[in-house]
Write a structure and sequence with these properties.
alpha/beta; 7 strands; Rossmann fold; 6 helices; globular
Length: 202
């Protein structure tokens, strides 16, 4: 499958009906997801691997990994309604992906690779939420692919170093977000974000 073909398929995945500002629920653009998945393939982190999508939402990373050769894929999210929606879409399209309603702190299962776009931790009620995702990733996976606001990368670097991990790859993207919540003042905003590939053990 070519990257553009994957992007077209991922564009059909449903979005959030009533996104929660507390969970900072935004659909990751299909083009960014497809690019990250193909990057992970270049590092041999998906094919025949066990892949987790933390904070999976409707499952765009999980589905992308499944479609491109992962051995087993599980998406985790604390939002029961969004997990049911992801399950329904996967069943309708005969996708081999498991979706579980579970808080990330309760995940005990292990995997080879994590693909995730955690909350940016921008809301007062959700400060540093992105770092909680990384900490859990260190406990359950060998490799993490994660997206963060570019301006927060220096803090993430210090955290990864303190956890005795190593960032082996960076890539920057423009992340577009449409007007979603009542506190959004503009119809469309673009954020500078960075993909990090993290090895959890040096």
């Amino acid at each position: 499958m070519k990257k553009k073909e994957l992007e077209i398929i991922l564009q059909k995945i449903p979005t959030f009906d009533n996104p929660s500002p507390t969970f900072e629920q935004y659909l990751t653009p299909a083009g960014i997801v497809a690019d990250i998945i193909f990057t992970a393939h270049q590092f041999e982190d998906i094919k025949d691997k066990v892949v987790f999508d933390l904070g999976c939402g409707t499952g765009i990373f999980a589905i992308g990994a499944s479609l491109t050769g992962a051995k087993k894929v599980i998406g985790f999210d604390v939002d029961k309604k969004i997990i049911e929606k992801a399950k329904k879409y996967a069943k309708k399209n005969n996708l081999s992906v498991e979706f579980l309603e579970k808080d990330i702190l309760d995940i005990k299962e292990k995997c080879d690779t994590i693909l995730m776009n955690p909350p940016f931790g921008a809301q007062k009620s959700n400060l540093k939420a992105d770092r909680k995702f990384i900490e859990r990733g260190f406990k359950i996976s060998a490799v993490i692919y994660t997206i963060h606001l570019t301006k927060t990368v220096p803090f993430i670097e210090k955290m990864v170093s303190a956890l005795n991990g190593e960032i082996t790859y960076y890539k920057n993207y423009i992340f577009p977000i449409k007007h979603t919540y009542i506190f959004h003042e503009k119809k469309f905003v673009e954020y500078d974000v960075s993909l990090l590939r993290i090895l959890t053990k040096r």
